[in-house]
Specification:
InterPro entries: CtBP (IPR043322), D-isomer_2-hydroxyacid_DH (IPR050223), D-isomer_DH_NAD-bd (IPR006140), NAD(P)-bd_dom_sf (IPR036291). By secondary structure, the chain is of the alpha/beta class. The protein has two domains: about 5-100 and about 290-325, 3-Layer(aba) Sandwich (Rossmann fold); about 100-285, NAD(P)-binding Rossmann-like Domain (Rossmann fold). It is about 35% helix and about 15% strand. It contains 13 helices and twelve strands. The protein has helices at about 20-25, 35-45, 60-65, 85-90, 100-115, 120-130, 130-140, 155-165, 180-185, 195-200, 220-225, 245-250, 295-310, and strands at about 5-10, 30-35, 50, 70-75, 95, 150-155, 170-175, 190, 205, 230-235, 260, 280-285. The strands form two sheets. It has a seven-stranded parallel sheet, sandwiched between helices. Strand 10, helix 12 and strand 11 form a beta-alpha-beta unit. It is elongated and about 70 Å long.
């Protein structure tokens, strides 16, 4: 009989061998269930841990039903699939993988910045349509990238990695993040500014805020109106940070010049979404973190986090570190946590 029961969701035949590299030695088993919230509630009644995979959402009802619950672990950066407040109230740590896919997401953000600025999709279409001679005149109307201003909304791990990539292109860089010390921004050659100033000065605005309550619809209609008409908006963070109808209106009415989007407020994108018909918008399917190392890295990390907590230790990454005061867990070496939407 297993010492620890970990409940997760899936089709029932998922290979968990990578997670079990660290969970097997401590006598844990992963029990996979399929179904809705009610089935999850029944399954976690005697569970020691929940391994969250997005759906169904780990609500307060699920957490309260798990009387033996010690930890909720996610194989993602975002934690919007868990009621973190409910977990915190019950002294349950919620872990994520905030530093596993930084380089991939930064690469993707930089790709969207460059492709949007150079109107890559439109240029590609011109070649395919036999409009070769129109391509060069089309780019004559846009300035060169060097000397443009790149503004980061939130300056966590991904934004910092993008700043390192952007610096050689000759960008002037700004950032708004009230949770990050100004000296951190300065170390990356980035000037800390207020939110309004960032929107007004930036030629490209890059969104990196997480899907938290505080960051919900951080970009509304009034914010798009503050941007330059020649500016671009790039989002590789979370779709919930943007009021999508307001962004669509901004693009349709020319308040901004274009957008590069890996995330949307509703995913998958609906077939009638106006963004699909806009040639000044580049869309990707929430794939910024994807690479050949994605599954192995995150699965091993989830296994390690679960093993730490089930073994009585504090996890490497915890989104609600205030539960340490209520917890019987011991700190592991080393312990470090930055807080706020900059992560």
């Amino acid at each position: 009989m297993a010492r620890f029961k970990i409940v997760t969701t899936g089709p029932g035949k998922t290979d968990h061998s990578l997670e079990m590299e660290t969970l097997g030695p401590i006598g844990a088993e992963i029990v996979e269930i399929s179904g809705d919230e009610n089935e999850l509630i029944r399954a976690v009644a005697d569970a020691d841990a929940i391994y969250g995979k997005g759906r169904p959402r780990i609500t307060a009802k699920v957490i309260e039903a798990a009387k033996k619950l010690k930890v909720v672990s996610l194989g993602s950066v975002g934690v919007d699939s868990v009621d973190v407040d409910a977990a915190t109230q019950l002294g349950i740590p919620v872990t994520n993988v905030p530093d596993t896919f930084i380089e991939e997401v930064a690469d993707h953000a930089m790709t969207l910045i460059l492709a949007s600025w150079r109107r890559l999709v439109v240029q590609d279409q011109m070649v395919r349509k036999g409009e070769w001679t129109k391509a060069r005149p089309h780019l004559y109307q846009f300035p060169r990238l060097m000397g443009m201003t790149l503004g980061f909304i939130s300056f966590g791990h991904v934004a910092r990695a993008v700043a390192k990539r952007a610096a050689p292109f000759g960008f002037q860089m700004l950032a708004y993040d009230p949770y990050i010390e100004e000296l951190v921004m300065s170390d990356y050659g980035v000037q800390p500014v207020g939110y309004d100033e960032l929107l007004q000065r930036s030629d490209i605005v890059s969104m990196h805020a997480p899907g938290t309550k505080d960051a919900h619809h951080l970009m509304k209609e009034q914010h798009f109106r503050q941007m330059k008409k020649t500016a671009l908006f790039v989002n590789t963070g979370r779709g919930s940070t943007v009021d999508e109808p307001a962004m669509i209106k901004a693009l349709q009415e020319g308040w901004i010049a274009g957008a590069g989007l890996d995330v949307l407020e509703t995913e998958p994108v609906g077939h009638n979404n106006p963004l699909l018909a806009m040639d000044n918008v580049i869309l990707t399917a929430h794939v910024a973190s994807a690479s050949s190392r994605f599954d192995p890295a995150r699965k091993r990390r989830v296994g390690a986090e679960l093993a730490l907590v089930l073994g009585g230790k504090w996890p490497r990454a915890c989104v609600n570190p205030m539960v340490l005061e209520k917890s019987k867990l011991q700190r592991w070496q080393p312990f470090s946590m930055e807080r706020g939407p900059g992560n």
